[in-house]
Specification:
The protein is of the alpha/beta class and about 290 residues long. Helix content is about 35%, strand content about 20%. It is globular.
């Protein structure tokens, strides 16, 4: 048996733990919910306002999004939360609740809505097909739409950040290079360099290492030592690209020893409580340090 993670370029020999984790990737989030672990976090919604909203995304597309914010008039700083390859599911919504409890307006756009909902699927090729439709121009256009929607809300200030996981981690880097409206970003284990094979191969688009000199705001990258899809040499390549560009935005990258891809995702076997907690606290400090 050989496994390829969503981010992987090359197959890898599985351990027993990786076989379990790989089954979640192979069958998608829908199966992972059926095998939910006791560690999955559910954040209380008391004192929060949650809603399904809609805004004009790329080329005017009516894009749905999930919103969570503190109850009351506000205003509060805003965080755009960018999903994994499995779309807007319970974990992503709970992350929005966590930010709302910290005093943020959290908005999670459904970047895959045009093609379907990967969270409900158990067939890997169907998930791959949906994710593949979300092109770089579309995703950046949708992000612009989310920013415009937030700017029109009385409960949100002009201080804005972006964070994302897996697929959304790469989007975070790209969004901070694309838009000067962001004041900070936190990218969780998102691809950094152009793949030669695997899930994203063949996409003609820039990657974070290509735009290291174009960042408009500081980005904190949180990565795993044992990420089979994002090897440490690509992390070093990104650090080198930042250094070569003079790192004008003062980005930082932290690698957590002994962790795997998805270490913040509490519904996965790869979840690492210590790293997840530390990363979360670092993310909050990073946002506040930069005025968000």
């Amino acid at each position: 048996m050989r496994l390829i993670s969503p981010e992987a370029d090359v197959p890898r020999a599985p351990s027993r733990r990786m076989v379990v984790a790989g089954s979640l990737f192979t069958a998608g989030y829908a199966l992972a919910v059926g095998e939910a672990r006791a560690q999955a976090i559910t954040t209380p919604r008391e004192g929060l306002v949650t809603a399904d909203v809609q805004f004009a995304g790329h080329q005017g597309y009516p894009l749905p999004a999930y919103l969570a914010r503190p109850a009351g008039a506000g205003p509060w700083p805003a965080v755009i939360v960018v999903n994994e390859i499995f779309g807007i599911h319970a974990y992503i919504k709970d992350v929005c609740h966590r930010f709302a409890r910290e005093g943020y307006v959290a908005l999670a756009p459904d970047y895959f809505d045009r093609a379907g909902d990967p969270a409900t699927l158990t067939d890997w090729e169907q998930i791959r097909a949906i994710v593949g439709t979300a092109t770089h121009p579309q995703v950046m256009g949708d992000t612009d739409g989310a920013l415009a929607w937030l700017a029109a809300q009385h409960f949100a200030t002009a201080r804005r950040a972006v964070t994302g996981f897996c697929w959304g981690g790469a989007v975070t880097w790209m969004a901070c290079a694309h838009s000067p409206a962001f004041h900070a970003g936190v990218a969780w284990y998102g691809r950094l360099t152009r793949p030669t094979s695997g899930f994203y191969a063949g996409q003609e688009r820039p990657w974070p290492a290509d735009v290291a000199g174009d960042l408009h705001c500081p980005v904190l990258g949180l990565y795993a030592e044992n990420d089979q899809g994002i090897p440490l040499e690509t992390v070093e390549e990104m650090r080198g690209a930042l250094d070569a560009a003079g790192n004008p935005a003062h980005a930082q990258i932290i690698v957590y020893p002994g962790t795997e891809h998805g270490f913040h995702a509490d519904y996965r076997p790869s979840y690492n409580e210590a790293a997840a907690r530390d990363g979360w606290m670092r993310a909050l400090r990073w946002f506040r340090q930069h005025g968000v």
